[in-house]
Amino acid sequence: MDVVGVLALQGGFSLHVAMVERLGYTAKEVRDPGDLDGLGALILPGGESTTLGLLLGRRGLADAVPAAIRAGLPVFGTCAGAILLASRIVDSQQFRFGTLDLTIERNAYGSQIDSFETELTVAGQLGVRSVPAIFIRAPRIVAWGPGVDVLALHAGHPVLVRQGRQVAATFHPELTGSTVVHRWFLETVAALGSPVTERSITMV
To answer: Could you read off the pLDDT of 59-109 as tens digits, one per residue?
Structure first.
């Protein structure tokens, strides 16, 4: 059985754990470097990126996680997780892994009251034409390198991107109930085996 790690220091990690288990995989909450052992993939959830950076340092994960990513561990960052992956953050020197060739702007869509839900047209490799997306204090990708594939746009800005075995979303797919993005990441990007329980799951 493939094991999928979910960074569980702060933020909405429990919904990602539930999504992984809904898809029939084993989820493992990651809080220490030893929790990275044996993982088939890693998910970095939303939350508060500055706080996550501090907690990663305290738990010894600030070096361990990017080292694992550079060694080939597939990773999916949502919202604050996308900020952690980015190489550059506009007007900020805060901690990040810097493994994904992006420039990102924090809270670019406004405050909590400016949150919104929309339907995104996505690239064909996800196997569908569109996915629902919820944006909450979302960052905005303002620049990206030549090795980054843009898979979805909102108002002209990338909101779902892939670079090799790294995926970043500036929205929250775990809040919509749709399994499409997680399933694509786990089965296509991370190339994990299809779980035995897959036939009993209704994909939306």
So the answer is: 999 999 999 999 999 999 999 999 999 999 999 889 999 999 999 998 766
Strand order in the sheet with 86-89: 86-89, 100-105, 140-144
Give the β-pairing of 149-154 and 157-163.
antiparallel
Give Rg (Cα) of the chain: 15
pLDDT value at residue 110: 58
Provide the pLDDT confidence category of residue 200 given band limits of 50, 70 and 90: very low
pTM for this prediction: 0.92
Number of folded domains that form the chain? 1
Residue 79 designated active-site: yes
Q: Is 157 a catalytic residue?
A: no
Is 182 catalytic? The answer is no
- Which residue among 16, 79, 105, 154 is the active-site one? 79
Q: Tell me which residue range forms the domain holding 135.
A: 3-200
How confident is the model at residue 201, as a pLDDT?
43
The CATH number given to whatever domain includes residue 97 is 3.40.50.880
Catalytic-role residue among 16, 105, 154, 174? 174
Q: What angle do CA 96, 2, 97 make, to 5 degrees?
A: 5
How buried is 83 (Cβ within 10 angstroms: 0-12 exposed, 13-18 middle, 19+ buried)?
A: buried
Catalytic residue among 16, 105, 154, 172: 172
